[in-house]
Amino acid sequence: MKLGFHISISGSIDQAFNRAQLLGCTAFQIFTRNPRTWKSKPLNPDEVRAFHRKHKESGIGSVFSHMPYLPNLTSPNETIYKQSLDTLVEETERCDELGIRYIVTHVGSHVGSGVESGRLRLIQALGKVADKNGPMILLENDSGSGGHMGSNFGYIADLVNHLGSKKLGFCLDTCHTFAAGYNIATEDGLTQTLRVVSETIGFNRLKLIHLNDSVGDLGSEVDHHDHIGLGKIGEEGFRRILASQLAKRPMIMETPIDSRRSDVENMEKVRELAGLSR
Fold first, then answer.
1. Average pLDDT, the chain
2. Is residue 249 part of a domain?
3. How confident is the model at residue 278 (pLDDT cuts 50, 70, 90)?
4. Cβ(65)–Cβ(40) under 8 Å?
5. Taking the CA of residue 201 as centre, how many other CA atoms within 13 Å lie in the half-sphere pointing to its CB?
6. 278 inside domain
7. Any idea what DSSP says for residue 217?
8. What is the Cα gyration radius of the chain?
9. If you ran DSSP here, which 8-state letter would residue 245 be given?
10. The pLDDT of residue 150
């Protein structure tokens, strides 16, 4: 089982490997740049070389990039849309340089312009990068709040099938899935959800699991992550998830930073619920 966290690149991007190893990660996710601004610094060649060296030496095979916070690939605002598309193109180039094979992106929000308008925007944006050599773009499902799109697996499947690219995949977030109304906390609900994934997107497209508990109730559309087992999915829900075919994919935790539980303790809890010895 490949387990890990979203890891800081503070100081230099290669330091992510040091931090991941201290946490016992066998996979991890990073922002390759400051996620809170549109502008980014070029990658430092020395850091890139160190990143490649540590990647090889660490034995950690699965490294994922996540798009920054600001881009919205379904925005009706021309300026934001162009900046978002430019950021996506730039991120594929940065990941190429670093040897990262997957980029996670949210589907985005149509901001009141309507689902069809947002869909056309997203198809146009993904079409710019999906057929090029480079990283696979993983569409992450959403909780469904406001104008945010991508909470329905059938909708994501429609996007992927429309473009028909081998460079498009899927990232399933357990918190978003539960908040969107798929009851993965129960045995029957998990079975039904996995069937829907299989019949729509397909497990061949599923490359990553974001393993997060949910503060919000089932179908609440609240995108608020909780520590593993402390939220509404609960320990028994995660015990079933970790025994399902989802556990065949790398699992990245994006759990809170607070006093209730550390990253190490979340890792220990997942390993306990999965029945793995330390």
1. 94
2. yes
3. low
4. no
5. 26
6. no
7. P
8. 18
9. G
10. 86
Q: What percent of the chain has pLDDT over 90?
A: 83
Burial 48-77 (b: 16+ CB within 10 A, else e): bebbeebbeebebebbbbbbbeebbbbbbe
* 132 has pLDDT over 80: no
pTM: 0.96
- Identify the pLDDT of residue 148: 83
The amino acid present at 264, given as its one-letter code, is V
Q: Quote the number of domains for the chain.
A: 1
Whether 136 is covered by a domain: the verdict is yes
Question: What's the mean pLDDT in 91-105?
Answer: 96
Residues 6 or more apart whose CB falls under 8 angstroms from that of 130 comprise 137, 163, 165, 167, 168
| Element of type H or E holding 71 | none
What is the span of the domain harbouring residue 172? 3-273
Looking at the domain assignment, is residue 78 inside a domain? yes
Contacts 24+ apart (CB under 8 A), 82-87: 83/38, 84/108, 84/125, 85/125, 85/128, 87/38
Q: What is the CATH number of the domain that holds 148?
A: 3.20.20.150
